[in-house]
Give the backbone structure.
Amino acid sequence: MEKIKVGVIGTGFIGPTHIEAIRRLGFVEVVALAGSSQESAEKKAAELGIPKAYGDFRDMLKDSEIQVVHNCTPNNLHFEINREIILAGKHVLSEKPLAMDSKESAELLALAQEHGVVHGVNFNYRQFPSVQNLHAKIGHGDLGKVNLVHGSYLQDWLLYETDYNWRLAPEVGGKTRAVADIGSHWCDTVQYVTGKKIVEVFADLATVIPVRKKPMSNVATFGAQNTEEVIYEDVPIHTEDYASVLVRFEDGSKGVFTVSQVSAGRKNRLSFEISGSKSSAFWNQEEPEKLWIGHRDNPNEMLLADAALFSPEARSAIHHPGGHNEGWPDALKNMMLNYYTFIREGKDPAKDKTNFATFEDGHISMCITDAILESHQQQKWVKVQQEVQS
Ligand code: SOE
């Protein structure tokens, strides 16, 4: 059977991880890579063994062989490039955040629906086997009524004043940073797991490092550098390193989360605990095979990911026997598997259920992010408004 042909736009940290995940599927082929220049695209394409390189993504969109395009560019390019991908009639898988604000994301959602393309957003944390299993368990009522959801997403890659990245520049990363970059993942994951939407927020954001030293050469995400020989310029920072957000869900249940990119020792620690009327559950992305289940009248349990012990609906998310732990790359592969199986089976995004995040989830995320920023600025509760494309 003919493989699905794919082009990827973006040669930074995340693009190659998409390519690696796609290549594990067996029925999809990455045939093109687009970068910010012909030279950088050709260099990266050669490094990754990709046959075609484009210095301008617009030229790649004219390539009739390509059916799907991944947008792995910095945040400020998401709207324009996603729009062009859709107008070129190609299916689209975009990195989060979907756009720079909810007005842009509303427009992208409407355009994708109008053109009937399959649209996805890389909310990959919902794809971990134990997260899929918890989603199923909650759906079966194993925790009872979900009353509280609390947690955090902590990293330390921006701990030092010399840590710099395009996400720190509002004109590239957006008007919020930690919230849009990792708070979006926490909110999407807990909404997916509980099946409930966040409808109101109260937020407090802080910039812990108000002036950073920007190296006079680009540094990739999570890129460590030898600080001795680098020349720096002082740059005032106005986006948040930290946020704590109270949330209210659509059924009246409550929650709270903290995000930080300056928490030493926490590398990529998305975690949440759900307190239900019958039992509790806790999951931490840094130990993804473990799912803690808390009880009042029985010993607490630690469920290690194992298909034999999973809810039937979650077994397709786990591909190795118990103890053969699956982590971050495997969750990303699960998302690609769900997205490309949907395309291979010729399903209709207008009516068929997806097991991957779509532009609708991406838009909801932007609406939450906008509400969090407004709440911080106004220091009051703010309702999550879903911009309806006029
Ligand atoms: C940096 O915070 C980052 O790479 C995010 O941009 C990703 O979405 C997250 O998965 C890991 O951390």
User: Anything to note?
Assistant: The mean pLDDT is 95.
